[in-house]
């Protein structure tokens, strides 16, 4: 059966004219093909019909991007107080964010963005700024520090065991020397 299918394909190949290939694929260069056929075989099977289904390209349509989110933080211990919200439908984005500044005011930024007008933001501050009082510097008199005298002593010359025994007791002749 394999020989039968190969023979049928070999018989079908020369039937396609090269000009038809060039018309369909004009941008391709077709090199001449040299074919040599095997001796003709007697085929007792019905011819095989090969039909190609038409190729249909399905175009995917993307829906416009769309999302919405909101979050906030309120930590009164560290004074980290902020929030943000944003909404997008297609190419248009609208949103705001606000945060508590170190001086006690609240900064709020409302923004919009789209392909036509670009990014636009309006910044507002609310509340009264409170600044801590500047620390008062107090002049402290500098005290003069005098170092204490260095105390050192000299050892008595080392004596041999015989000398120590003849003395009868150890002699401690340490002397204090002040510098």
Automatic annotation (TrEMBL):
Keyword Signal: yes
Keyword Lyase: no
Entries under InterPro entries matching the protein: CHIT_BIND_RR_consensus, Insect_cuticle, Insect_Cuticle_Struc_Prot
Entries under Pfam families matching the protein: Chitin_bind_4
A Gene Ontology cellular-component term: extracellular space
Signal sequence annotation: 1-20
Keyword annotations from UniProtKB, A to Z: Cuticle, Signal
GO molecular function: structural constituent of cuticle
PANTHER family in the cross-refs: CUTICULAR PROTEIN 76BD, ISOFORM C-RELATED (PTHR12236:SF95), STRUCTURAL CONTITUENT OF CUTICLE (PTHR12236)
Protein name: Cuticle protein 8
Organism: Cryptotermes secundus
């Amino acid at each position: 059966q394999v020989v039968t299918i190969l023979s049928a394909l070999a018989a079908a190949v020369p039937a396609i004219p090269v000009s038809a290939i060039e018309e369909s694929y004009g941008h391709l260069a077709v090199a001449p093909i040299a074919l040599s056929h095997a001796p003709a075989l007697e085929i007792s099977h019905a011819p095989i019909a090969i039909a190609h289904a038409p190729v249909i390209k399905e175009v995917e349509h993307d829906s416009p991007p769309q999302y919405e989110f909101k979050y906030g933080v309120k930590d009164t211990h560290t004074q980290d107080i902020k929030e943000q919200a944003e909404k997008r439908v297609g190419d248009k984005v609208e949103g705001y964010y606000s945060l508590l500044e170190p001086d006690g005011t609240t900064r709020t930024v409302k923004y919009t963005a789209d392909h036509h007008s670009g990014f636009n933001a309006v910044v507002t501050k609310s509340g009264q700024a409170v600044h801590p009082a500047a620390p008062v510097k107090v002049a402290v008199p500098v005290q003069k520090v005098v170092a204490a005298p260095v105390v050192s002593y000299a050892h008595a010359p080392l004596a041999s065991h015989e000398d120590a025994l003849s003395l009868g007791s150890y002699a401690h002749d340490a002397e204090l020397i002040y510098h």
